[in-house]
Amino acid sequence: DIHASFKPLDETLVAGYVESQPGLVTILGGTSADWNVKEVGDGNLNFVYILTGPKGSFVLKQALPYVRCVGESWPMTLERAYFETTVLREHGRLASHLVPVVYHFDHPMALTVMEYLAPPHIILRKGLIAGTVYPLLAQHMAEFMASTLFHTSLLALSTMKHRKEVAHFCGNIEMCRLTEQVIFTEPYMDAANNRWSSPHLDTDVQALREDSAIKLEIAGLKSKFCERTQALLHGDLHSGSIMVTQNSTKIIDPEFGFYGPMGFDLGAFLGNLILAYISQDGHATSQDDREGYKLWLLKTIGDTWQLFSEKFLVHWDQNWGSGDAYKKEVYNTKDLQLLVQKSFMSELFQDTLGYAAAKMIRRIVGIAHVEDMESISDVEKKVTCERRALTFAKHLLKERSKYSDIRQVCNALQGSR
Amino acid sequence: DIHASFKPLDETLVAGYVESQPGLVTILGGTSADWNVKEVGDGNLNFVYILTGPKGSFVLKQALPYVRCVGESWPMTLERAYFETTVLREHGRLASHLVPVVYHFDHPMALTVMEYLAPPHIILRKGLIAGTVYPLLAQHMAEFMASTLFHTSLLALSTMKHRKEVAHFCGNIEMCRLTEQVIFTEPYMDAANNRWSSPHLDTDVQALREDSAIKLEIAGLKSKFCERTQALLHGDLHSGSIMVTQNSTKIIDPEFGFYGPMGFDLGAFLGNLILAYISQDGHATSQDDREGYKLWLLKTIGDTWQLFSEKFLVHWDQNWGSGDAYKKEVYNTKDLQLLVQKSFMSELFQDTLGYAAAKMIRRIVGIAHVEDMESISDVEKKVTCERRALTFAKHLLKERSKYSDIRQVCNALQGSR
Ligand SMILES: Nc1ncnc2c1ncn2[C@@H]1O[C@H](COP(=O)(O)OP(=O)(O)O)[C@@H](O)[C@H]1O
Ligand SMILES: Nc1ncnc2c1ncn2[C@@H]1O[C@H](COP(=O)(O)OP(=O)(O)O)[C@@H](O)[C@H]1O
Ligand SMILES: [Mg+2]
Ligand SMILES: [Mg+2]
Ligand SMILES: [Mg+2]
Ligand SMILES: [Mg+2]
Ligand SMILES: [Mg+2]
């Protein structure tokens, strides 16, 4: 058992652990008496400590063998820390300026030490709720997704390397199962974990559970999630897994990483931006009607897909035939290359819209909600936003084949009620 | 290295090996002096020996570290013997009456000992060329594919078990790469391995290599082959991997087994039946016009899909919710179950037609041809059959979305020229 020597840390024990690691002591400088330790984990799963010393700082993240926000009654594999670190390092290789640097990984302790993303870095979701514009967000996220998804797919890899990586990440099955359960299953049934604004949305929830067309679409998305090993995904790419400043974007927390359909990452990010957009009416005040901010969010949604697809195609154009999927000798004319690229991107667009919708639905009726909605203090306003999100997501899920362009989606979102 | 002690056998060395295995000696009875050894391998890859003794008999199959029909210049992993035996045992568990019993596996020696399928068992392809009717073929093949594909998919398995198996079979990557190369790549480019009836089909081959619509379809099928881990496939299910009598059907040689799209197995079998059908005109004589036989082949093509889909749905109906794909609590009404089943079967039908077409094309213009065509002695007749097969396959590949029923496909085949 790789975790035989596992010990859960806490604020008082962390310094002792760091003292035992000379490389880490060097980063902080001084001795443990000089260090400040603060637990800041606001996520659902793990413990995150910020350590600062006379010379430097870092973040220490430890997984415990259960789900933090639920407790020991919901066990969860320690191996997620291993996969998180493995993905973080791979992302570092592919998009170094968009992820924290990993300094240290302790497998038995399920513990990762990484670059501290100091203030003014904040979690994107909090920035979106505050109404802060991030001018580089779309560009950075497009860059991140284009690079990490392209370079771990068969567009860049040999089938030899790809199948080896697929096999490796099959090991992160418990995290995949959590996603299957809370995103693709429970929202569509009567499950103890579900919660929603009740009684306001009771009939909406009932209608969702009786909607055969929705369940058919969800079946297709779930089976692609479980069976299509298209690229190495972040796996949990919502606005709570991104830290931002005006000129920096950093993607953290890829503990759900595995080989799955690219649209799942794209949909996670876009679905959460759509939730942010719809929640704005709930945050509007007489001083700040948020109308300008809503336009920026719409533009960011559109730009993200647009820039993603441009950048992805640039990678593809620069790497024709480097992966095993499309051999240069077969796809040997510019017209043919354009044809297969167009077909690829349009399937990916459909997947993206589908997963975006699935991600939205589960945030309204499933176990884990989003602060964008939860922080709306006026209940009527909150319920109005939630119902609008649910309605739009259902529409997107069922009618997405009618959309071929992100601008059409943005227009539909803007006009939705 | 698991194969450190590997030694290639030959007709003179086989008995010595068997002598070292008491369990095998017991099956044959007597001593090596009483045994008859005969090499019968007619396949492309491996060596197959029939051993008979006073008490019993068996077949001993050994992989060599290269492709038999090419020689040492084309190396090929010995691990294929391990995967073949693993799949054979799994098939034995799921459809015991349709596969030979495995008696013995020697991993270092890449060697499997299995039940001898004695005459009148012959390779199906030879029976089809001879014009022999096999009344139970469709039923048996439908049974085999329905059972093996259903029970290794997420319709029957938990995602836990499924991902474990997927990871395991990622190890058979070299065999998958061979398929990628000879089925999905080389037929669509100028490759040294390709051969075809030249100069007769030169312009047809040229046209194929310039057909963008075909290459687009092939790209989709190849990516599903590489990325969709839908079920444990046989992986090489043509009429040369099936041995038959009037009342027995046995599926052998699953050395290409891996987790892939179900339609690949279905398409392999149906595509080879279509080749057999089209080749009949080349085998017709004034004594035997083969018209009745052609009708039986058409019926067998239709019945195979029809019976497969019935049997597959029976497995599904009897096992609702046993796999993780469609939870009973979500897919909770008969109407909804019918809706998702219909959608599943119609996607599978499309995949099946696509892979059938791909399998046909590669047999006309790629490295490995079929005896159904090769044994037509009149060159003009042979070329006519080959061109018709190529034309029909291209039609199927491009227009398959217009077919929703196997009878329509059979009618189109019957009317094709
Ligand atoms: N490298 C970092 N720098 C600064 N803060 C971080 C860093 N990593 C995590 N955090 C903080 O800790 C919180 C939880 O981290 P996260 O990796 O998302 O854990 P979880 O897996 O439990 O969701 C984040 O929301 C963020 O506030
Ligand atoms: N169990 C068996 N019983 C009788 N004959 C067999 C058996 N297995 C293989 N053969 C014969 O050996 C030939 C080659 O076997 P096969 O497993 O297809 O090898 P390869 O992998 O080289 O294609 C078959 O076509 C068949 O004639
Ligand atoms: Mg998190
Ligand atoms: Mg979120
Ligand atoms: Mg996390
Ligand atoms: Mg064979
Ligand atoms: Mg074989």
Structure description:
2 copies of one chain form a homodimer. The longest helix of chain A has 32 residues, at 334-365. In chain A, 52% of the residues lie in helices and 11% in strands. In chain A, strand 10 and strand 11 form a beta hairpin. Chain A has 2 domains: 14-114, Phosphorylase Kinase, domain 1 (2-Layer Sandwich); 122-415, Aminoglycoside 3'-phosphotransferase, Chain: A, domain 2, CATH 3.90.1200. The radius of gyration of chain A is 22 Å and the shape is globular. By secondary structure, the first copy, chain A, is α+β, with helices and mostly antiparallel strands. In chain A, the strands form 4 sheets. The first copy, chain A, has a 5-stranded antiparallel sheet, with helices on both faces. Chains A and B meet through helix 6, helix 7, helix 9 and helix 12 of A and helix 6, helix 7, helix 9 and helix 12 of B. One magnesium ion binds at residues 43, 240-241, 253 of chain A.
